[in-house]
Amino acid sequence: MPQPHGFTYEQRGPARTVVISHRGRPVTTLRDGRARRFLQEVSAGDEQLVMARWTGDYKRGNERTARAHPRNRGR
Asked: 1, exposed or middle or buried, with CB in 10 Å at 0-12, 13-18, 19+?
């Protein structure tokens, strides 16, 4: 499975707002408690994977099952 890439984040202002961007475009904004949890998690793990998970842009685990479906065979 390819690793996610192209994500960046920026912490803004005293209110601890975090903006997550993908390839230069803002994807989501986290504030207060959610921003604090995100910053803790991103400092402890793989930044790209954490940002992909927080934005919802990540593999869901059903790709192999879908590939084996009769409708998708031969593609």
From this structure: exposed
